[in-house]
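Render this sequence as a predicted structure.
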Amino acid sequence: MSDNLSIFPAQCRAARALLGWSQEELSKKANVARATVADFEREARVPVTNNMLAIKEALERGGVEFIYKNGSGIGVQLRVF
């Protein structure tokens, strides 16, 4: 799931924590239902492509970078400006 559109549920949770955002705040910034964020984060379902992209882009606009390293896992970090 390391393509340009997808993130992992753990990355979403970690990104929100770094930004201090609630699920409700992320859902508003991404213009998706709060249930979409909650279901994704608890791994109940994968959002449709448009919603996944909206979530990822909202977090990136907030200042998060998604990390995908072969062999050493996934993560998030705050972007350095």
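Summary. The longest helix spans residues 49-62. The domain at 9-78 is CATH 1.10.260.40 (434 Repressor (Amino-terminal Domain)).
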